[in-house]
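[Solved] Which block belongs to which protein?

Original post:
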Amino acid sequence: NLNQILWEAARAPWREPSRIIRLMQKTTSYAALNTLLTNLGHEDEAAGYHGALCGALCVKPATEIDPMTLIEADDPAEPDTDARRQLMQIRDGALVSLQNDEGGFTPLLPEDDADLAQRIAALVAWCEGFLFWLASRSNLDLQQCSEEAKEIIADFAEFTRASLDDGDDSELEETAYTELVEYIRVGAQLVYMELRPRPTPD
């Protein structure tokens, strides 16, 4: 139930419930990424790929992330020059938005007019991808993270259990979904700011 999950997440001390959710990416952007990934053999939704990309960017320099390695496929297609360029642009765009100190980051999810069940499934996939690639850094020690970061990561893990149950109040669930997206938007940036790779002094 989204409302129960939201209630748990709302206890985070850094959260600002009154903050208005940012406009999400246009449907064409999400659809375009879905189409691009499908053509390359990706078997999951674009949301999971974007979450994985953001999780990887939290723990690895962008230059060390080959966007093709994030594609879930038994036999991925070899990207042509244009497809590889688009993947690089998506990676670099995600990095810029995570670095935006004015709250410019937004998880790439379906547009609000998509079916709520589809949007919830995409949100779950985004969190799963983010957590999987966040854990790809072998020396990541969550015990060394701040309490805020640890709570955010724990909440993201809880969000992977989100679902739409029969009989749920659709209006309440829509509101809860919007609040969860905002929580992810702010939380992902905070995790990035804390864990982001920093240049090694010469």
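(Second protein starts here: sequence line, then its structure tokens.)
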Amino acid sequence: GHNYEGYSTGNCVLVIDVSRMNTVEIDEERKLVKVGGGVKNRELYDAISTKGYPFPGGTCPTVGVSGYALGGGWGLSSRYFGLGCDSLLEIQLVDANGCLITANEHHNRALFWACQGAGGGNFGVVVSLTFRLPNKVPGVTFFELYADYAKEIACGLASVGGVVVGVVAAAGGAAAPAAEEKTEFDVILASFGAKKLDVIKA
């Protein structure tokens, strides 16, 4: 599992595979997206970015959306869209007694509050999460700068307007990756609703 302290594994623990609960339901009229408990970042990005929507998700494509959101949900788009838990509207989980519980602002409010940052796997087995969708993003420009003056150039480009996805500034003019190389920035771009990667090199 994804946990820096290794808390997702251990001795005498039960691991429940929810990876097949990977449905993504988009309600464009109500601007909602409901994801199954086993949906990963990449699967969610692939589903909503094709419709032009961004999502305040994580950077690692194989992290589960449920664990990401239950831990608060920090990602590279957080300054623009907020934390993942800020968009969380409802959660369904199965408790230790085998009961299906729905938690939101109106039902089981204390549990819903606790699930907005207290960590994954602590209160039950998540079967679905419902998020509010951000507004569609018309376009995103991503750029990487490999130059001593990268920071100054980045500030100039950012002042033009639009969504700035990320900047990689390398002093001394470090070599840029080959054009055909793919990185996790493809996933990051998808979280902003971007469909195309344009790289500007200084």
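Accepted answer:
You had them paired correctly. Confirming on the second one: Helices lie at 41-49, 65-70, 78-81, 109-114, 150-158, 185-191.
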